[in-house]
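Final report, Chapter 2: Outcomes

The project's central promise was a pipeline that accepts a single protein chain and returns its three-dimensional structure in a standardized token representation, suitable for archiving and comparison. That pipeline is now operational. To close this chapter, we reproduce one record exactly as it appears in the project archive, with the input sequence first and the structure output second.
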Amino acid sequence: MSIKELLLNGRSFNEILRQFAIDKGDFTIKDEEALFSSKDFLTKEILKERIFIQGKTKDEIVNFFGTIHCNLLSKLAVFELDGVERKANVA
């Protein structure tokens, strides 16, 4: 199960997406592969890492900065939002 799927299982992250009008399919977790490739990842029950999430709407790109807290055994994840950056979507 990916971190993205774990986050979408929780209400609080879905509320963040709703507040910024971001569809559940229109966000990516930057460097998610790097989190899972760590040797420590396989031996830890709980993962706590700083992450960068980028969401897109038709008008803007929203960058979320924060910390992900994952309990891998329980398959739970919480995103602790530290900051938001908004940019006009030029695409």
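Archive annotation: The CA atoms of residues 3 and 51 lie 11 Å apart.
This record, like all others produced under the grant, will remain available to the consortium after the project formally closes.
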